[in-house]
Design brief:
The chain is mainly α. The chain has helices at about 5-30, 30-40, 45-70, 75-95, 110-130.
């Protein structure tokens, strides 16, 4: 695969994540109680719901940033995807180090495992791809 094609793949995935983050933001803020009970399967404690809502705000923010990158700076998409991966990895390490564990089912974790894996796979494809003209693919 050429660098150009791999870059387009990374940019497209970043666009998909942007759309997903809009949906996640909407679910976390506007459908908070429904999403926690029927999708994530977590206890609907008011403090937990508030924190989910706050997280939804950050989903909207990241979605807007990803849309701008897709439109204006596609060349940094692989680096942004790696930043997402390492940001989540750092957060997971911090949560584990603090000894926190989920008590509820948290069904959203399975989608997030795929999300996280792709934020490593797509940049890896880019960095391992050959720097050659597009017509030799």
């Amino acid at each position: 695969m050429t660098k150009a094609r791999a870059l387009n793949l990374n940019a497209l995935f970043l666009l998909i994540i942007a759309c997903l983050d809009v949906v996640r933001g909407f679910m976390h803020t506007f459908l908070n109680g429904f999403a926690s009970e029927h999708i994530a399967m977590i206890d609907a404690h008011p403090d937990a719901l508030f924190l989910l809502g706050v997280f939804g705000i950050s989903n909207f923010v990241t979605a807007m940033i990803y849309f701008v990158i897709y439109k204006k700076a596609k060349q940094i998409a692989p680096y942004v995807l790696l930043a997402i991966f390492f940001g989540y990895l750092l957060g997971i390490i911090g949560i584990r180090t603090d000894g926190l564990r989920m008590q509820s089912a948290f069904n959203g974790q399975y989608m997030m495992f795929v999300y996280l894996a792709f934020t490593l796979i797509f940049p890896s494809i880019f960095f391992l791809s050959k720097n050659q003209p597009a017509n030799q693919d």
